Every structure is written in C-alpha cells, then in structure tokens.
Amino acid sequence: MFVAEFAAAMTSADARRPQASSARSDRVYRPGIGPHAEDQAVELTVAELKQLHPDRYRKLRTRVPYPSSRQMCDLALGDAPDWAIEVKMARFSGDNGKPDDTAVKDLLSPYSCDRSAVFDCEKLASAGFPGRTAVLIYGFEDNRRPLSGAIEAFEVLAGTRVILGPRRTARLEGLVHPVFSAGRVFTWEVSPR
Questions:
Q1: Does residue 133 come out as left (phi exceeding 0), alpha (psi in the -120 to 50 range) or beta?
Q2: Distance (Å, rounded) from C-alpha 95 to C-alpha 20?
Q3: Which pLDDT belongs to residue 70?
Q4: Can you give the residue range of the structural domain that contains 54?
Q5: pLDDT tens per residue, range 11-70
Q6: Which residues, 6+ apart, have CB-to-CB distance to 84 below 8 Å?
C-alpha cells in the first residue's frame, strides 16, 4: 500500500507544478517534481501524503536519526519507528535531457562515500532500528537508460550484501516536466544476511 500511496502523492505534488532552483546558480528549472533534489522531492511527497491520508501518515517523519549514530534516515513511519526507509532517486538525465553520467553510482556504488542505494541497504541492515527497514527508489524513465536495467543491477548487487524482500512497484505517469514525465517507485524490505 505504501508504494502505491507514495507514487500517488508524488504525482499529486508534481501536479502542483513545483519549481526547483539550482543551489550553485540562479537557474530555475522547469516545473515538476523531477528536477528537485532527492530530499526536496521527498519533503514535497511526504507533505502530500499527510494531506491525502492524514490518519495513516500522521507519524511519518523525515530525517530521523539512526540508533547510536549521527546519520539520518530519510523516512520513519510510526513511533518506534515501525518502518525506517532510505530513499534514492534514479534520474539519468538532467532537466535539459542531457545524460547524467554519474547517476548510476547513486544506486550501485559499493563504496560508503558515494552513499548509494546498495550502501543504504547495508546501513539499514546493521542499524538496529527496532522495527522493519526498507529501501525505496523512485526514478524517471529514460529511453537511453531504462530504469529496469538499473533496478535489476541494484537487486543483484544489493542481494549479495543483504536480504531483499519482494520488489513492490507503482507507476508515476502524467508528470508535468517534459523530460521527467513518467517513472516508477520501487520498494524492498531489507534484512541482514
């Protein structure tokens, strides 16, 4: 249910035509959730989730500390939390449609300094959260680099380090940005190997 509602909330937030701007320049990107940095897109989506389902997501929080660490987890649902969720974005092109040659490392890098989705799985599995843990990847379709190839590679690599539960998927469709007009949201429960 969470993956479908997260995708619906992201689509709803996108329909509000939010505009991201560059932290390094005065550039303002075309409307849509696609150009937003991951943390901004998550904040917009969480705000929408809370508006669409106030009872269910009243206790959904962002940037929650890991047990015995100064590191922050992207999402926590419930008091304990019941679920600790790390989020990663898969965006293989820029706002202008040009390829982003570093995007794949955000999902697949085995090195902790890159803070990839693979590393997030390891971090979650060893964190000691009292509840369950999961990784969520949202991404945008790109004809040159289809999401499916990166997701399959993620599952293979992450599966050598942790136990991934079944993949859950929901579509992002009809988004307002011309480059980031469609995509998908994926989640897996993460357990120690």
A1: beta
A2: 10
A3: 87
A4: 2-192
A5: 999 999 999 988 777 888 999 999 999 999 999 999 999 999 999 999 999 999 999 888
A6: 64, 73, 75, 76, 124, 127, 129, 131, 132, 133, 134
Residue 70: count of CB within 10 angstroms of its CB: 6
User: Residue 143 corresponds to which amino acid?
Assistant: N
Helix axes 117-126, 147-159, angle to 10 degrees: 40
Quickly list H helices, the chain. 2-15, 38-52, 105-108, 117-126, 147-159
Question: How many domains does one find in the chain?
Answer: 1
For the chain, how many residues are written?
193
- Mode of pairing for the β-strands spanning 60-65 and 83-90: unpaired
Q: What is the pLDDT of residues 88-142, one digit of tens each?
A: 999 999 888 888 888 899 999 988 899 999 999 999 999 999 999 999 999 999 9
Q: Distance of CA 45 to CAs 5, 89, 111, 128, Å?
A: 10, 13, 28, 26
